[in-house]
Design brief:
The protein is of the alpha+beta class. Helices cover 20% and strands 41% of the residues. Strand 13 and strand 14 form a beta hairpin. It is globular. It has a 9-stranded antiparallel β-sheet, with no helix packed on it. Strands 10-11-12-13-14-15-16-17 form an 8-stranded antiparallel beta barrel. It contains 5 helices and 24 strands.
Length: 407
C-alpha cells in the first residue's frame, strides 16, 4: 500500500511538472550572430543592426553604428519575450519571439506614458541598407548642412567618409554631434541611420549636383527638411563665445550634494588653489557621455598636476532613487573618480548657476583658474565620431589647462 501511495504521488508530481518542463524546453532565446532590425517611425522605416553573443554570465547585445559599439549586458528572458535594457539612457527594447522574428517596442522607461516605437528584427548578417545602382556623386568631405524649420534655419557641419562601399560620418551642431552615422550612397542618393539607445534617426537625401543635396532628417516622430552645400572650410560658431558670465560675475558659487548627500563647493580644500574643470551634464545626454568618456581617463592621468574636475548633473527627474540609479550607472560605466553632484532637474541651471547668462547646451564645460575665476566656457561637445574636430578639441582643451596650470 505504501509503495502504491508513493508511486501515485510521483505520478502526480510528474503530471504537474510536464507543462513547466515543456515551457522551459520551448523558451526562446536570441540566436548568436548578427541581427537586422527596423523601427516603424511615422514617416519611414529606420534600420539598425546589432550582434548577439553568449557569455558565461548570459546573453549580451551590441548595437553597431559604424565604428561605434554599444554593449548591452542586461538581457532578460521571460517566457516568449526578451527585455534588453539600455541603462545609459534608462530605455529598453522589449519584444516577443514570433517564429524567426522579434516584434516589440522601444520605450523610454523614464517617461511612464511613452507608448514606444514599434520595431521588428530577424537574425541575418545583412547590410543596414540595400544599394540601388552606382552612385553618381560622393558625399565624401565636409558640408554645410542646414536644418530648416519654421523657427528659422540652423547651419551645422557634416563630415563624411566613403570607403569600401560604406558611408560613415556625423553632423556637428553647436550643442554636439549626431554621433556615429552609417549608410550608403547609390543611384538614388544617400541614406544614413543610427541607434545607440536613446533616439533612432535616419538621414536621407538626393544629390542636386556634385556639391548640393536636399533631403530629410527623420526621427521616430517626424521629419525635418535639410539641405547641404559642399564646403571644405565648413565650421561651427566659436564654442568659447556662445555662453558667457553675466555682467558683474567672475566666479561660480554653487553648493550641491554628491551621491552620498555630502555638500560640495568650489571653496572646499579639494578645489581651492587648483585649476578646475566644471562639466555641466545629464545622464540622458549622448554628448555628455562622450565628454565623460574623455574626461574620466584624462582626470586620472592629470589630477596630480593640480587640476580637478567636477560634474553638475541635471536630470529628467529628481526622485532620489532615480537619480541614484542613473548617476551610479554613469559613474560605474566610465569608472569616474571625480565628483558628480546632483544639481537638480533639466532647466534648473538658472537657479543653480545664476552667474551664467543662459545655458545653451548640455554639456557645457567651464574652465576655472587657481584663483577661482571663470576664464572660459565651452558650449557643446563634438566627440570621437567627428574625427578631426574631436582631435582639435582635445588639443585646445589640453593647451588651455596647461596655460592655466602654468600661471
Amino acid at each position: 500500500i505504501i509503495i502504491m501511495i508513493r508511486m501515485k504521488k510521483l505520478f502526480l508530481a510528474l503530471l504537474f511538472a510536464l507543462p513547466f518542463m515543456a515551457s522551459a524546453q520551448n523558451k526562446s532565446t536570441l540566436k548568436p550572430g548578427k541581427w537586422y532590425a527596423e523601427f516603424a517611425a511615422q514617416t519611414a522605416a529606420i534600420p539598425f543592426v546589432f550582434e548577439v553573443t553568449n557569455t558565461a554570465s548570459g546573453t549580451e547585445v551590441t548595437l553597431i553604428n559604424g565604428k561605434e559599439r554599444v554593449e548591452l549586458k542586461k538581457v532578460v528572458y521571460k517566457g516568449d519575450s526578451v527585455y534588453i535594457s539600455i541603462e545609459d539612457y534608462d530605455t529598453q527594447l522589449s519584444a516577443r519571439f514570433e517564429g524567426d522574428k522579434l516584434k516589440g517596442v522601444f520605450k523610454r522607461l523614464f517617461a511612464h506614458s511613452d507608448a514606444g516605437v514599434p520595431f521588428e528584427a530577424y537574425h541575418a548578417d545583412r547590410a543596414r541598407f540595400d544599394t540601388k545602382g552606382k552612385a553618381d556623386y560622393s558625399l565624401q568631405g565636409k558640408w554645410d548642412v542646414v536644418f530648416q524649420s519654421e523657427q528659422g534655419d540652423k547651419k551645422n557641419v557634416g563630415i563624411f567618409n566613403e570607403e569600401g562601399g560604406l558611408l560613415t560620418g556625423s553632423i556637428l551642431t553647436n550643442s554636439g554631434d549626431l554621433r556615429f552615422l552609417e549608410g550608403v550612397t547609390d543611384a538614388t542618393g544617400f541614406r544614413l541611420s543610427a541607434f545607440a539607445g536613446l533616439s533612432p534617426y535616419l538621414i536621407e537625401g538626393k544629390f542636386l549636383d556634385a556639391d548640393h543635396f536636399e533631403g530629410y532628417f527623420i526621427t521616430a516622430k517626424g521629419r525635418q527638411s535639410i539641405k547641404g552645400v559642399r564646403n571644405q572650410q565648413a565650421a561651427l560658431s566659436d564654442p568659447y563665445r556662445l555662453t558667457q558670465l553675466r555682467d558683474g560675475y567672475t566666479s561660480l558659487n554653487f553648493k550641491l550634494p554628491n551621491l552620498k548627500n555630502q555638500l560640495v563647493s568650489l571653496t572646499d580644500d579639494k578645489y581651492r588653489g587648483k585649476v578646475v574643470v566644471v562639466s555641466i551634464l545629464g545622464s540622458w545626454c549622448p554628448n555628455c557621455l562622450d565628454e565623460m568618456s574623455f574626461l574620466s581617463p584624462w582626470y586620472k592621468a592629470n589630477k596630480e598636476r593640480g587640476v580637478e574636475v567636477v560634474g553638475l548633473a541635471f536630470e529628467r527627474k529628481t526622485e532620489p532613487a532615480y537619480v541614484q540609479k542613473v548617476l551610479s550607472n554613469l559613474i560605474n560605466k566610465h569608472q569616474t573618480t571625480y565628483d558628480i553632484l546632483v544639481a537638480g532637474k533639466i532647466g534648473d541651471d538658472k537657479k543653480v548657476l545664476p552667474e551664467i547668462d543662459g545655458l545653451k547646451s548640455y554639456p557645457t564645460t567651464i574652465f576655472i583658474d587657481k584663483k577661482g575665476n571663470v576664464r572660459k566656457i565651452h558650449t557643446g561637445f563634438n566627440g570621437p565620431a567627428t574625427g578631426l574636430f574631436y582631435d582639435e578639441f582635445k588639443s585646445e582643451f589640453n593647451k588651455l589647462v596647461n596655460e592655466l596650470l602654468a600661471e
